[in-house]
Amino acid sequence: MSTFSIYLAGFDVFRSDALDYGKQLSRACAERGLVGLYPLDNTAPQGLTAHETAAWIYRSNIALIERADAVMANLNPFRGHEPDSGTAFEVGYAVARGKPVWAYLDDARDIVSRVAVGRDASMPARSIDAAGMTVEDFDLPVNLMLACSVTWVQGDARVCLDRIAASRQRPA
């Protein structure tokens, strides 16, 4: 079986132990016969402005996604009820490039169960969130554009890696 590389997308890059966590994920990939490509494998060159650094990181992450055979995305809520916007972009980019994407959530209950606080008075069949916005009700854990474009796994990164590795061992 040839080497299968996975871009490890997620807000984990913002953890205080991001580099160590990335090494742990990469080791977990290797234990399953996979190659993990963690976005913080690279460090930006010194002397760049903030905007130049951001652009360098963007280009580096896009290059890693291009190099990867697939993407594994942490779509757990980040700074609210929704996944990290950068991770959502990376999922969309990978899908547009025809790469398979596996996504994991600790809590894969539907959005309505997790965020709805009431009903829309003008349309009682619709649930609303705390801001009074309609909560889409398709029995999916995240927005349909993400939910319909990935293979879902309930659990953590290692559970997701197990599923990816198992899918690689099935005959085509």
How would you describe what is shown here?
By secondary structure, this protein is α/β, with parallel strands linked by helices. It is built from 6 helices and 8 strands. It has a single domain, classed as Rossmann fold. α3 links the parallel β3 and β4. The mean pLDDT is 93.
Any key phrases for this structure?
6 helices, Rossmann fold, about 40% helix, three-stranded antiparallel sheet, five-stranded parallel sheet, alpha/beta
Task: Provide a quick synopsis of the model.
The protein is an alpha/beta fold and 172 residues long. It contains 6 helices and 8 strands, in the order βαβαβαβαβββαβα. The longest helix is centred in the middle third of the chain and has 18 residues, at 50-67.
The CA-CA distance between the termini, in Å, is 12 Å
Can you write the helix and strand succession as a string? Answer: EHEHEHEHEEEHEH
Shape: globular
Strand residue content: 15-25%
Can you tell me the CATH class? Alpha Beta
Radius of gyration: 18 Å
Put simply, the count of helices is: 6
Give the SSE layout:
Layout: E1 4-9, H1 18-31, E2 34-37, H2 50-67, E3 70-74, H3 85-96, E4 101-105, H4 111-115, E5 118-120, E6 123-128, E7 134-135, H5 144-147, E8 151-154, H6 157-169
Parallel strand pairs: 1-2, 1-3, 3-4, 4-8
Antiparallel strand pairs: 5-6, 6-7
